[in-house]
Amino acid sequence: FSIKRPRVLVVCSVVLLVLLALAVGLYFGLRPTLDGDTGLNPRNPTSPLPPSDSPMGVFWDASVATNGYPCAIIGRDILMKNGSATEAAIAALFCEGVACPQSMGLGGGFFMTIYKRATGKVYTLDSREVAPAAATEDMFHGDSNLSQRGGLAVAVPSELKGYQALFDHPELRSGNVDWRDLIEPTIKLCEEGLEVTPYLANVLQSQEESIKNRKTLGDILINNATQKVWQLGDKIRRPQLAKTLRIIISEGAEALYNGSLTRDFVKDIRDLGGIITEEDMANYSVKWSDPVSAQLRGNLTLHTMPLPGSGDVLVFMLNILNTFVPAHTDVLTYHRITESMKYAYGRRTELGDTNFVHNIGDVSPPLVSSFFATTFGGIGYSLNIIGDGSLPLVLSRSTTTSGEICCNLSIISDICYDENIVAVQWKLWLYPNSQLHTPSTLRRSLDSCIGNHVIKCRSVQMPSANAPFTYP
């Protein structure tokens, strides 16, 4: 047979183009993310990223935004039963502890801000963990790992106590759902299993060796069939947690703090080297406070979390920017935003927990005043100092700093049909926190309470050499 020469050239050209396209696709598809970094800890991109593939939701009656895939649906279902925005948030948070075990659980804590439109009232709840009463400044003997991993790193959990306080608040309850309704959907997830998401799979892979070295954590995060951490798409079942949640339905939060779960829970932690006592559990209480507020452009009012949260810092930033940032966006505008943040974070290290540090009042009220911001911290500098250059180093770095400020925040929020709004924030320090698992699924670290050395503390938000070094 014979083939004409032009036809041979066409066929060869097509084959070469296909091979070239395949090679390019394999190169860009299989190469490590950003010069060898993993997806969990990527470097800052040097070119614009593509738009997110997450669809934008448009809702008429209510909305719930969560991290765990099924948790928004659980929150929505509570709203459909005419539950309140607060009750929907509680149900979603129970779910988050199962859907996002790397981030939170019954051993954690949170801040919550609630807006009730009918009355115009804003509530803030501090339900963060606290240090055990036996905690001392030198209990880690200079070993920072002990403040991050193991029994000694465990703080008194506050998550469940906060849920109960929210549900029991007479102004935030709907009267249309029971405590059981908020927990049973999560029990179902525990029993039927929940698929490992891409993010969780990435976290487990990055921490595999550490997980294998801790049997209590490996019991739930290692697949016995493969002796590896659970992979993307695997289903994790939590039958023991389901049993614990059924007890919590029956006894309420007191099951963990002064009930049938307390003794075994404390024993588990102490067997792992912790210092928590039954008295620590019984003595824990949450704190309700007034919000930190600010009037912004466009007839907007900001309401946010007071100390030991970072609402004061946020208000200070926005008050500075509120004065001079133009409506349009350009490089200079972003520069000024960045410089304002640098200065505000310098002042952040002077703050702490007002429950335990009594001189914070000298710093906090001025920090949230618009006059203080517009005179640039009351130190004689006008806002023009930000200008086109960089802020003087002395202004952007506080002399009280005594530790690396490092944390990631996770948030869920919901807006109800009656326009009530709930925003919940918890702090992600390490994966997966203290790397412990007990029958009550505790997992939380004292690392948020330390600077360069260990200090006695109560759920401090930022490290410092001064104010945040507080006591149990």
TrEMBL record:
L-glutamate binds at residue 128. SUPFAM superfamilies: N-terminal nucleophile aminohydrolases (Ntn hydrolases). InterPro entries: GGT_lsub, GGT_peptidase, Ntn_hydrolases_N. It holds the Pfam family G_glu_transpept. It comes from the Eukaryota. GO terms for cellular component: plasma membrane. GO terms for biological process: glutathione catabolic process. GO terms for molecular function: glutathione hydrolase activity. This is Gamma-glutamyltranspeptidase 1. It comes from Timema poppense (Walking stick). The lineage of its organism: Eukaryota, Metazoa, Ecdysozoa, Arthropoda, Hexapoda.
